[in-house]
Amino acid sequence: DLEPLSGAPPFEQFxxxxxxxxxxxxxxxKKNKELSSKPLVSGEVSKKAAQIALIVLFSLFCTILLTSxxx
Length: 71
Known about the structure:
Layout: H1 8-24, H2 26-31, H3 39-42, H4 47-70
Helix pairs in contact: 1-4
């Protein structure tokens, strides 16, 4: 029963989008002093950790999507 996970896909999509945006805009954000506190730009989160988070979130979302449509 996937009912407890029914709210997960929108949250995952939002989080995935935020991380992807920060990852893609890293070089642009790094030049902007107003954005220097963003986790990737400040070094609080590494680019490798962001890549791993993107892979995990995408995999989790696909698993939930496939499981909910198959059963």
